[in-house]
């Protein structure tokens, strides 16, 4: 589909970028096995499976402690320090991307990955 092709090429557009707050593309290929309808393959750095969405909605390892949020849902509130840390990571990644004339068209918590070292990385272009 057109959307799939656009997404594939958008990911490749950032392949040359190297910044600690942007998921790094390691390799890519437009070759696919015979008989498969595939655009290609992109190999990206491993960032784990934690996202800011998981942290906000309390569905991940990052949210170890739980407390009642007043709405009947137990989830941990982000501390001010943690919120600032994540915000600075995201801002640094965006400043870098914009300096390279790259605009992320789908920036949302699910596309902010949090590594095991607690570093935010922007991905899923």
UniProtKB/TrEMBL annotation:
Catalysis: reaction(s): L-seryl-[protein] + ATP = O-phospho-L-seryl-[protein] + ADP + H(+); L-threonyl-[protein] + ATP = O-phospho-L-threonyl-[protein] + ADP + H(+)
Annotated ranges, domain Protein kinase: 1-125
Enzyme class: transferase
Sorted UniProt keywords: ATP-binding, Kinase, Nucleotide-binding, Serine/threonine-protein kinase, Transferase
Highest taxon listed in the record's lineage: Eukaryota
Keyword hit for Transferase: yes
SUPFAM superfamilies, per the entry: Protein kinase-like (PK-like) (SSF56112)
EC number: 2.7.11.1
GO molecular function: ATP binding; protein serine/threonine kinase activity
Protein name as catalogued: non-specific serine/threonine protein kinase
Lineage: Eukaryota, Metazoa, Chordata, Craniata, Vertebrata
Encoding gene (name): c-mos
């Amino acid at each position: 589909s057109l959307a799939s092709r656009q997404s594939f090429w958008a990911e490749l557009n950032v392949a040359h970028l190297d910044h600690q707050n942007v998921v790094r593309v390691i390799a890519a290929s437009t070759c696919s096995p015979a008989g498969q309808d595939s655009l290609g393959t992109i190999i990206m750095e491993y960032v784990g499976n934690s996202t800011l969405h998981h942290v906000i909605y309390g569905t991940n390892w990052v949210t170890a402690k739980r407390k009642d949020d007043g709405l009947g849902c137990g989830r941990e509130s982000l501390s001010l320090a943690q919120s600032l840390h994540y915000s600075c990571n995201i801002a640094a990644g965006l400043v870098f991307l914009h300096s390279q004339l790259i605009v992320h068209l789908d920036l949302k918590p699910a596309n902010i990955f949090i590594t095991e070292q607690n570093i935010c990385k922007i991905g899923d272009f």
